[in-house]
Amino acid sequence: MKLFILSGGAAAGVVRGLQSEFEQSCGCQIKATFSAVGVMRDRLVAGDPCDLVILTQALIAQLIDSGHVISGTDQSLGLIKTGIAVRSGQTHPDVSSATALADAFTQASAIFSPDTEKSTAGIHFMNVLKTLGIADELKGKFHTFPNGAEAMQAMVKSASPNPIACTQVTEILYTPGIDLVAVLPKEFELATDYTLGICSGAHNQESARLFAQWLTGSASVALRKQGGFEMPAMQSPLDLP
């Protein structure tokens, strides 16, 4: 028995952190795919097998409206802010203001980020650079990847002397060899509500409901906090309609 999951990269650490115990406890193999939320939405709509989907709250709401996610099954894993990262051991630049942030990007030897067209953090990051008026001049430094986790892993391996990155804090904190410098300054803050839903075409709805409880309940609280999720008050167990 398999449980198919399509998820934004920000939730990868939580899913993987629970995967082994869930598989052993429930006799169900998790087949999870992680990428930019827009890509995952498109794959679900295109018909990829999916029992449980984890995207932004806004995208889950759209999928409920379109009938791809069962109404009433949506539950939040928590809010994720977007932050600035460097490799462990690098000097942490000042990113506390718009001027300091612009200087940090300008002084960096390379800039790593998730997809700037289909990922939540990547789109926001590009808008920040445009607001700062430095997007065009920094194009030659960009290194973009399908999701923030891949961007962080690539920055760890990069030979660039002083790279910098912008992505969601979960993808920073779950990556060994990467330091979180700070979240974006207040004027550029982005807090994204990551939400799950049970797919209307789910073939393994029972396991999807159970894993949804693990992801949003007490079993994952420590894991989510460790990864930078800011959680709402504890939710009641998920009951499918």
Concise synopsis of the structure shown:
By secondary structure, the chain is an alpha/beta fold. The chain is built from nine helices and nine strands.
General description of the model:
The protein has helices at residues 12-26, 37-46, 57-65, 98-107, 120-132, 148-157, 169-173, 205-216, 221-226, and strands at residues 2-8, 29-35, 52-56, 75-87, 111-114, 142-145, 164-168, 178-183, 191-198. It is α/β, with parallel strands linked by helices. The chain folds into 2 domains: 2-79 and 193-226, D-Maltodextrin-Binding Protein, domain 2 (3-Layer(aba) Sandwich), CATH 3.40.190; 81-188, Periplasmic binding protein-like II (D-Maltodextrin-Binding Protein, domain 2, 3-Layer(aba) Sandwich), CATH 3.40.190.10. Strands 1, 2, 3, 4, 5, 6, 7, 8 and 9 form a 9-stranded mixed sheet that branches. The longest helix has 15 residues, at 12-26. The two termini are 23 Å apart. Residues 234-241 have low confidence and may be disordered.
Number of domains: 2
Number of helices: 9
Helix-strand sequence: EHEHEHEHEHEHEHEEHH
The CATH architecture name of the largest domain reads: 3-Layer(aba) Sandwich
Distance between the termini: 23 Å
Rg over CA atoms: 18 Å
Q: Which structural class should the secondary elements be placed in?
A: alpha/beta
Work out the strand percent.
15-25%
How would you characterize the largest beta sheet?
A: 9 strands, mixed
Based on DSSP secondary structure assignment, what is the total number of beta strands?
Answer: 9
What fold name goes in the CATH topology slot of the largest domain? D-Maltodextrin-Binding Protein, domain 2
CATH class of the largest domain: Alpha Beta
| CATH superfamily membership of the largest domain | Periplasmic binding protein-like II
Q: Overall 3D geometry? A: elongated
Q: Give the fraction of residues assigned to helices.
A: 25-40%
Uncertain runs:
234-241
Mean pLDDT value:
93
